[in-house]
Amino acid sequence: MIKINFKQRFLVALAMFAGAFSVMAQDGLYPFEDKGRYGYINQSGKVIVQGQYSFADQFYDGLAVVKEKGKKGYIDKAGKMVIPAQYEEAYKFKEGLAVVKLEGKWKYIDKTGKIIIESSADYTYNFNDGAARFQKGLKFGYIDKTGKEILPPTFEAAYDFSEGLARVKTGNWKTGKWGYIDKTGKMVIPANFDDAFEFKDGMANVRVGNEARGKYGFIDKTGKWVIEAQFDKANQFSEGLASFRVGDFKTGKWGYMDKTGKIVINPKFNQAMPFSDGLACVKIGDARDASWKYIDKTGKVVIDKDFAFPSDFKNDMAFVKIGGLRDGSSAFIDKKGNFIWQGTK
């Protein structure tokens, strides 16, 4: 059994929480939750699939993961169960395949439910850029779409390939360094970083120094600095802007920079999310009275309502929670802040 420390458990739980309420709606339907039951609405707020599942994920490639009677399966946009709810775990389709766990074993299936790859790994991940991570014990490796092992499990930590490169960690978990490999396993950007993230639009955010006092900047795919390491925290670029923090985790403030490193929105927010559909959700106010609102790319607040939990806009809609993260009601809003759909408490 793989042991996961407290920090790792927290990050896994946070990722699952964010994933459950993300609003990608790539196929025009949006998962909603009302009184603990999940269904789907369209962009007009009309219920297309009634709230009947104990969990419902986003649609990808025409199919979505749902959970009923403790098992997961896949439905189409009409709500028909096209791949039976039989899996202990099931994840979104990506590059034509999905990861599932059946009777304790990991597998990759196609959109008919046919098993394409049988895995002996302790954990497997989605395909990205034609390769998928797997974990054996505490080490990571990669396979291709035939199931062939292209890189053995030798990495202390590793993430998906993005734009032809994957970030991997050398040395032990606590003191090791991050660098970038290609699909031959060659370290094309030396492991000189104390933290590193995936490439997006030819740039990746990296940190030099420890988490408390280190600085973040951006490199290109040769490892050259595009924006020197100077920020206390910096996230990936989205729609030409990246959020950054000045100051520590508790008291620091967030703003936004462009791809030259120029500050375009001064750091004044408690938290700041990526831009999507031209808007970003930010947290404003003192710690006790802070609330989430939406700004445009000038930094102007354009949706001035108090949300307990917001999400990115996609296709002119965003998921929000009203009146409390746990006991509040779920809703979808448009880009003017009007409610398109609202659940009951």
Could you give a short description of this structure?
The protein has 345 residues and is mainly beta. The protein has one helix and 35 strands.
Key phrases:
single chain, 345 residues, mainly beta, four-stranded antiparallel β-sheet, 53% strand
Give the helices and strands, then pairings:
Elements: H1 6-21, E1 30-34, E2 37-41, E3 47-53, E4 55-60, E5 63-68, E6 71-75, E7 81-87, E8 89-90, E9 98-102, E10 105-109, E11 115-118, E12 123-128, E13 131-136, E14 139-143, E15 149-155, E16 157-162, E17 165-170, E18 177-181, E19 187-193, E20 195-196, E21 204-208, E22 215-219, E23 225-231, E24 233-238, E25 241-246, E26 253-257, E27 263-269, E28 271-272, E29 280-284, E30 291-295, E31 301-307, E32 309-310, E33 318-322, E34 329-333, E35 339-342
Antiparallel strand pairs: 1-2, 2-3, 4-5, 5-6, 6-7, 8-9, 9-10, 10-11, 12-13, 13-14, 14-15, 16-17, 17-18, 18-19, 20-21, 21-22, 22-23, 24-25, 25-26, 26-27, 28-29, 29-30, 30-31, 32-33, 33-34, 34-35
